[in-house]
Structure formats: structure tokens, C-alpha cells
């Protein structure tokens, strides 16, 4: 099936620029291309021909072989009328669980085969995640003004959705992209491990997009703030908001990014939210993410805080009722005060 979909390509072409058999320009939604061009020009992210067909040629959405013009994977997924007719695996599965693991008796919502163009897929994904995560208010520690806070920053949700779609391996016809929402985190799972030369350790410094043409169009559409720097944006945003850093995992078959949600205390306007400092917020975030932590694990995860200051931070959280303990001196564990599920990940 996979070999039959693509024509024999020149070796230099990326997968998303390959011509797809049994396609023609009739399968392009030209009105969508025209809207994209207008918006990309308005944003200052596109300068070039305003003719839709010329644009499609310039962005590797169309390719001519001999005397026949075909759509590419980019053309189908970005502007095609029905991308899943030829690529039924180019969908997203969404799972929402009440606990920390993907257990059937903790399913809140399952939605399989989210299809359409990449823009339609992202719109549905963002809609669900934003509606089903927590949002609230807190107090500014300097002005005491109420400010909005969210369990997951919107730029992080968007960037990781784009990253999953634009960097997945579409040649894996038995795999689909998946997003899993748990009580303490969200996971974005992209089919295909990291491309050759990329590792979890160098992924923030090396740039090697698997589908560069799809990514370029998504940048023009405003879905990416800095072309080629999506994961950098995620890391920087979480750091600026004093949240736990993302976790990257390459299984070879999939690339997984996990982000842990903001502590519930930060979503509530009130004295408690105003009283705790940035380090205490980070400790709460880490404890919630891991389920439980030992004193040594907290020291390792917050290495830049002096030992005595860290002890004061932990005592303060206990006095406010935000942390509780189990075990004795050698088996001491810290838990979030409302963490009913004490299973470790």
C-alpha cells in the first residue's frame, strides 16, 4: 500500500514533497489556499505570488512529473478536500483519562480518527484540551491584581500539537498520532522515532524537520511562533511560568513529549496562591507530576536552591496544608495534599 501511493521520487525530496498517485489539482480546496495566502500576507509571513496555483507549486504542494501534475503529501494534508481518502492513517486519536495511566476503567473520553486537514485536526485537538483542562485566577505578588492562569499554557498546547503533526513519520501506515490527557499531564505521541542524527539530548540544538514543507505552511498560518524552534518555545514558556520542564522520550517507534500541569493552588485567587514563592510552586508541580518524591529527589530536581532555603520551602508548604508526608525518616515521601492516587509513574 505505501509503495503504491507515491510515484518514484528524486532522492533529494522530503517525504512531504513526494507526488501521490491518483491525485490531481481537482482535489485541492482553492478557497482554503486563497484564505491562507491572505492571512499569511497580513501576518508578514509570506511574500510571493498571490496566484493560488503558483503558490502551491512554490510550497511543494504540487509537483509535475512528465506532463501530469500531482498533489504531494503536503498539498493533501494542508489543502486537500479529503486527505484521509488516500491516507487513512493521517489522523489523531485522543484519549482522556481520570487517573495517571491509560486504564480502561478510568476513561473519560475517547475520540478516534480525528481527520481533515492538519488545520482542522489541530482546531479539534486544541478545542478539547482547552475545554477539559483547568483555568483560573491568581494574585500578582507585587500588585495583588487578579491575573489569569491556566493548567497548561496555550503556546505549549499549540506548539506541541504542531510538532506532533508536522514531525510525524507519515510513511508508517499502521500508526496514528495520539494525544493523552491524564489527571497530572498531557502526552503528545508522534509516530516514528527521531530522525537520524537527532537525540533527546541534542533535540533543542539540532534542527532536522521530517516534513519541512508542512511546517513552513503552518508557520505561515500562524501556528508556529518561531520557525524551527517549537520545542525551544515550549521549554522557555514552561520555565518562564515556573512549571516543570517537559519530558522527551524516543522509543524508536514513537517520539513522546509529556508536560505536567500547573498545581491547582496556582489556579485559585486567594491568599495561599499569593503566599507561596516560585520554588514552592515548582516543588508542588514536581510532586504532583511524580505522585510522590523523597527529600533527596526534591534536592536533585531543584539543584539551584540552597539546602536550608529548600527545607524552609517544604516546611512552608506543609504548614499551609499543601504537602503531606508518609513513611519514616528513611522512607519519607512527600505527596500533594489532595493527591488521592499515590501510584508512582
Instruction: Indicate the proportion of strand residues.
Output: 15-25%
Note the gap between the termini: 38 Å
**Secondary structure: helix percent:** 25-40%
* Number of contiguous helices: 12
| Order of secondary-structure elements | HHHEEHEEHEEHEEHHEEHHHHEE
Structural shape:
elongated
Assign the CATH topology of the largest domain: Heat Shock Protein 90
Multimeric organization: single chain
How does this structure look, described?
The protein is an alpha+beta fold. The protein has three domains: 2-80, no CATH class; 92-260, Heat Shock Protein 90; 276-336, Orthogonal Bundle (Arc Repressor Mutant, subunit A), CATH 1.10.10. Helix content is 34%, strand content 18%. It contains twelve helices and twelve strands. The chain has helices at residues 2-5, 30-42, 52-58, 73-79, 118-131, 154-167, 212-220, 230-240, 271-275, 278-290, 295-301, 307-319, and strands at 62-65, 68-71, 92-97, 107-114, 135-139, 146-150, 177-181, 185-191, 247-250, 254-260, 323-326, 333-336. It has a six-stranded mixed sheet. It has a two-stranded antiparallel ribbon with strand order 1-2. It has a two-stranded antiparallel ribbon with strand order 5-6. Helix 6 runs antiparallel to helix 8 (230-240) and helix 10 crosses helix 12. The longest helix is centred in the middle third of the chain and has 14 residues, at 118-131. The radius of gyration is 23 Å and the shape is elongated. The two termini are 38 Å apart.
